[in-house]
Amino acid sequence: MVRAKKEDRREEIINSGLEVFSENGYYNTTTALIAERAGISQPYIFRFFKTKEELFIAALERAFERILQTFKEVDAKPEELVEKMVDAYEQLSISHPHEISLQVVSFSIVEESIREITKNSLLKLRNYTLERFKEAGISNPEREVTTFLARGILCNISYFMDLPELMDSKVK
């Protein structure tokens, strides 16, 4: 019972961190802001995370892991795979917008540990997607995965900047 409560509190802190980091960026976020959002004292955060950086990494890893899991759950015929994966990602953007924003935030962070997590996570997504595309028999899978990931990053930036014109040619 105590362990479950402790794990629940950790999750609440990560969720609050996701929200605050995605709204304010990494450098403008303090653990005091995260604690306020979580409804706890600032020192309590440090029972779970030694530093703000460690908390950010936990949130970022969750965001990337959710994307990977979402892609793994896509069940589609080979000719529908790319479209179904795009649809799944768009749904993820709606259901977990803070996680999507957090990815954009992570691109601008210079701390090496965060840069490494971002790079490794993007490579993991690329490698998984490439294998799926190859298995589906998609022609020129390397080019297609690059286009797929580039579109996803552009989608993230479009959402983050509240600039739908980047994605939707119908918007004037």
Automatic annotation (TrEMBL):
Highest taxon in the source lineage: Bacteria
Protein's UniProt keywords contain Repressor: yes
Record keyword Transport present: no
PROSITE patterns: HTH_TETR_1, HTH_TETR_2
Species this chain originates from: Metabacillus niabensis
Keywords: DNA-binding, Repressor
Domain HTH tetR-type: 7-67
DNA-binding region per UniProt: 30-49
Name of this chain's protein: AcrR family transcriptional regulator
